[in-house]
Design goal:
The chain contains ten helices and 23 strands.
Length: about 475
């Protein structure tokens, strides 16, 4: 193969290295340049008569125009585009998400392009050359291979927010996978510094300490989003979800440690400091207040209030981690933490991420079910791991903000929905209200489905929304799930 011939293309694989169509050991001298069909074009020159007659006069194409065949025609068509290599994939928690466009490689396409360029550019007519190029792209459409077939599974785990977070993703390059996962974990850690109610120096804790203040407090976008969604869900659930439940949660944590019920007077005092309507958002700062980089404000009007984001912050963190992965070009992923998870596109050659649900810890429990999750969220809520038995009664770690009492019926709620933060909070709503009353509260949120196991006495009650059926799949022959 004569690489110096005018009108020929030197093709370099998208991963670099020697040319697929060249003899072994040959490496093109220039690693840069545009790509075509997943290959890098390091030299592409038309005969001078074509440049002078058709190219320079029109100005529509240069002899070294950057071209790329970005998508497989079998999955929706091909397109020739310029050097732009990202695409908008949607919104996540209000932020615009972009990801890298897929690339393709094909040895047969390289050889076809080489032969066609050699023959067509020797013709006397540019029209004939363009016809041959059309035939090349039609032929290449049948042999372009998807990059997903080269993607490998990568798994990462790290403790954050007091529980293990796990990321499973598919990527062809290990370095890309590691960098994306590290960035996602860093985002979760950043949110923990903002939303933790255990850290006295977190932004959320500092706001709680200023409860009862007459002036609003500037807050970050992250804290504002969580507070805004919390008050929205509190309103729709008539207080069954309440991010100000902190004083009551602290009492029941002590009860579980000491195995002793909280005194009634202490419950009443704590209940007086729980009120979601006492959260004021975006009130203007007083005149003369120093400039701040924050766009939003918040004020807790009752002294002694304590915010507890345990029912919503994890969902927000999962959604933000997923957005980071997509911004790094990762589309196939599953991010999970403490029983909640966010799924992107499924693994290669799979219809979804297989998840076992409905594992109820009682002797007469029904068999577990299986959900195939794709581009959706799954959240769970229950007392399987955090509970205490006092005087023969089982008390959950979940507290009803309206009564101040911990739940006493054994339950497990599984919900699927499009938004992680909302789905996380709604799972607590259904835990408190039950399937009947809870269903009325979640009607305002399209796409949310639920599966509820309850054991108020000795009998297990199972309730599921009608729309859940579209997520359920038969039990697999083996027990391999995510």
């Amino acid at each position: 193969m004569n690489h110096s011939h005018i009108g020929r293309a030197r093709l370099l694989s998208s991963r670099g290295g020697s040319c697929h169509a060249c003899p072994a050991g040959y490496t093109p001298p220039d690693p840069g340049g545009p790509r075509m069909g997943g290959f890098q074009i390091t030299a592409f020159r038309l005969p001078r008569r074509f440049q002078q007659t058709h190219l320079k006069s029109s100005g529509s194409l240069s002899p070294l125009s950057p071209l790329r065949l970005d998508s497989c025609p079998r999955s929706g068509g091909s397109s020739i585009e310029g050097t732009e290599n990202t695409e908008k994939v949607g919104l996540r928690n209000g932020a615009e998400v972009h990801r890298s466009k897929p690339q393709a490689t094909c040895t047969m396409a390289a050889r076809m392009l080489d032969r066609i360029l050699e023959f067509s550019l020797s013709m006397s007519s540019l029209r004939t050359a363009l016809q041959w190029f059309t035939l090349f792209f039609l032929g290449a459409a049948g042999c372009v291979t998807s990059p997903d077939r080269q993607a490998r599974r990568h798994e990462f785990q790290r403790p954050e927010m007091g529980l293990p977070f796990r990321i499973v993703l598919y990527a062809a390059d290990a370095a890309v996978a590691t960098n994306a996962a590290e960035a996602a974990f860093s985002r979760i850690s950043e949110l923990n510094s903002c939303l933790s109610d255990y850290d006295d120096q977190s932004e959320l804790s500092r706001l709680s300490k200023l409860s009862g203040s007459t002036n609003p407090v500037p807050i970050s976008d992250d804290l504002w989003r969580v507070l805004q969604r919390s008050t929205e869900i509190s309103r729709s659930s008539h207080g069954a979800f309440d991010i100000t439940v902190g004083p009551l949660v602290q009492l029941w944590k002590r009860a579980r440690r000491q195995r002793e019920l909280p005194p009634d007077d202490r419950l009443a005092e704590a209940r007086a400091r729980v009120d979601w309507t006492a959260i004021e958002l975006d009130r203007p700062l007083p005149p003369g207040h120093s400039a701040t980089r924050f766009r939003h404000t918040a004020r807790l009007t009752i002294p002694g209030m304590r915010l507890d984001p345990g029912g919503i912050a994890k969902g927000y963190a999962l959604g933000e981690a997923a957005a980071v992965l997509e911004s790094h070009g990762i589309s196939r992923y599953l991010v999970s933490g403490g029983g909640d998870m966010v799924a992107g596109d499924p693994p290669p050659d799979k219809r979804g991420w297989l998840v076992k649900v409905g594992v109820f810890d009682t002797t007469n429990a029904p068999k577990p079910l299986y959900i195939s999750l794709k581009k959706f969220t799954l959240c769970t809520s229950g007392d399987q791991f955090q509970r205490v038995e006092i005087n023969g009664v089982r008390y959950s770690h979940i507290v009803d903000p309206r009564t101040g009492r911990a739940l006493t019926d054994h339950s497990l709620v599984t919900m699927v929905g499009p938004d992680p933060m909302t789905t996380d909070a709604l799972s607590k709503v259904v835990s408190v209200l039950g399937a009947g009353e809870g269903m009325a509260s979640i009607k305002a949120y399209p796409g949310v489905e639920y599966l509820v196991y309850r054991q108020p006495a000795q009998r297990v009650e199972v309730t599921a929304s009608k729309g859940l059926n579209r997520w359920l799949v038969p039990a697999p022959p083996n027990s391999t799930t995510e």
